[in-house]
Amino acid sequence: MGAWGYGIFDNDDALDIRYRFRRHIRKGLSIDKVTKRCIADFPDPMNDVSVVLALADLQMDHNMLQPEIKRRALAMIEERKDIESWVDPNKRINELEAFKQKLLRN
Asked: Which of 25, 42, 54, 95 has most Cβ atoms within 10 angstroms of its Cβ?
């Protein structure tokens, strides 16, 4: 996975999810089917921070945030999952905290 920034979509996996999500939504699939198709090629998607946070953001954009995705995203943010992999963890934490507030409003 390549990452170049600290935002939710500043890495390859999140961009892959966004591309797949948009493609499947345009086909008129339900949010459940879209989510299943988006995560199908990831080995352990519900434990992949990039995948879960991207799905949460995309689902919020479509006013269809699934409770399990929201719960998992908030848990990952709280536990600072994979935070040590960032060059400047504080910048990533700031992005995650802002995203957490967005999640809590939905």
From this structure: 54
